[in-house]
Amino acid sequence: MEKPLKVDVVSKTRVVVRAENSGPSANGLEGGCYHRVAHTSSSTGTKMIFGLFIPSTYTCNLNAASIPALFWLSGLTCDDTNFPIKAGSKAFEAAEKHGIAVVMSDTSPRHDDEIPNVDSYDLGIGAGFYVDASASPYNQHYKMYAYITKELPGVLKQLNIGSKKSISGHSMGGHGALTIALREGPSVWSSVSAFAPICNPTDCPWGIKAFTNYFGSTEAGTEHDAVCLLNKKGASIFDDILIDQGTSDQFLKEQLKPETLVQVAKKVGQKVTLNMREEFDHSYHFIGAFIDSHIDFHAKFLTS
Amino acid sequence: MEKPLKVDVVSKTRVVVRAENSGPSANGLEGGCYHRVAHTSSSTGTKMIFGLFIPSTYTCNLNAASIPALFWLSGLTCDDTNFPIKAGSKAFEAAEKHGIAVVMSDTSPRHDDEIPNVDSYDLGIGAGFYVDASASPYNQHYKMYAYITKELPGVLKQLNIGSKKSISGHSMGGHGALTIALREGPSVWSSVSAFAPICNPTDCPWGIKAFTNYFGSTEAGTEHDAVCLLNKKGASIFDDILIDQGTSDQFLKEQLKPETLVQVAKKVGQKVTLNMREEFDHSYHFIGAFIDSHIDFHAKFLTS
């Protein structure tokens, strides 16, 4: 019996060659395609759109085995489309090779004139910081933690996607990936990686601004700070945490601070593989250069 | 003795890992980086900016051997940045593998308020059609044929790039690649390929509009129409012409017409490898899916 359709495929584009056994499913999804999928979110109270790549081996049979998925979280100013447009060609090729779906979330609520916003690239729309805001005026809609950790996995489960889940992201999205994985642990997220993540947001301008506005204080942000979380756990959580960081990244010293994460990881015994990439900057060209190695990394955990 | 600097590197981003022997040259170029390069164009009478990827093995020694280059021509509405942003991650990886530079041209003059333009996506700025306009008001600045075939190779020669040259492009840029290669022949362009090219512009709305405005008549466009040029040559010009075309391309039947090119190629004995890609559309996702196979194709001619 078919499960009820609860999503709307707003666009679908073939991105890898179709497999012989692949065809449209009842919900319009298709293996080998990149989709934009819309649904009404109970977390944010708005329409949300996420990107979804399904490998061509997806049978589109809802009774078949669920496929593993990598969740990608983008950085400040991005919506669901930046990653697939700018890093999709290499990412989809790598995901196809391993038979992994890629789920590309938005970074905040939007698509609704009533969402509180400010004229700022690092707060409000495009800057949800992957937390559930508790302070007015953001506390009604800015619930990206609940959205990523509870609602979106539930939507994907209905689509038979996410038998296992891993998580990665860039900058603010790298912060989201690290903190979500550290909070929920390896029973929920098989592996975690990040590109140029904000490692210690309670000690950098972006994080202080976000936590002050979303929670009312920086201190409340310690529960969403990778350095603080790892220090509090006091033990190794994952086999390895993979991080790539460009040495010419303009935000490295003031905002990102990977060395602080490496220090606390060493103290508590958590393995972190930090690749300092000489002369790479904070752009999607940096992500594009190494995204295949991150997908290879996650595949070891997702397909074993 | 250093050659005089005649270009301005307006931005430089590392996109592949630096080779040990790579470093900045006197002109600011660096192997393993994607650059935007500005110069004053005598063809268009404006500033022109082109994208330039140099493989990491580039020695940055102006006395060393020149490296081969693939020229990429983009389609309607694009400037020099669309291809590197949307297809760069796979294209640069493939070019790095083969030690080939990638030159990404603009599609028309711009960067000057005096350039004639119309409120239309398929004429004027972003739509130069790779011809030298002869009709007013376009005949002063719209000289993209001279720019691509004479001026840009000269600029690159000064940078020690383009020992051999191949050419490819998408849609209007595929038309540009095919017509430039057929007009100038294999002694100038080692190989030619295209994604979803406008094959017979004198017989489609985009081409008729462009030729009528740039030349004053459609008939004058036969000298810039791949089907007409191949028919006139009446013989095989290249070992092979590689074309990829999506079957779900919304412009396939009305604007692109690859089957007309294949027919005339068969008549005159020119080999054309036309890959009809099931369910792919006209987007950069389509280019991203197959750009590595095109660069592999050109490498056979550029590095032999």
Spell out the key features of this protein.
3-stranded parallel sheet; homodimer; 8 helices; 6-stranded mixed sheet; Rossmann fold; 304 residues; globular; alpha/beta
Summarize the model shown.
2 copies of one chain form a homodimer. Chain A has helices spanning 82-98, 144-158, 172-184, 205-215, 226-233, 252-256, 258-268, 284-302, and strands at 8-14, 33-40, 47-53, 67-73, 101-104, 161-169, 192-195, 241-246, 272-277. With 304 residues, chain A is an alpha/beta fold.
Topology record:
The structure is a homodimer of 304-residue chains.
Chain A: E1 8-14, E2 33-40, E3 47-53, E4 67-73, H1 82-98, E5 101-104, H2 144-158, E6 161-169, H3 172-184, E7 192-195, H4 205-215, H5 226-233, E8 241-246, H6 252-256, H7 258-268, E9 272-277, H8 284-302
Parallel strand pairs in A: 4-5, 4-6, 7-8, 8-9
Antiparallel strand pairs in A: 1-2, 2-3, 3-5
Helix pairs in contact in A: 1-8, 5-7
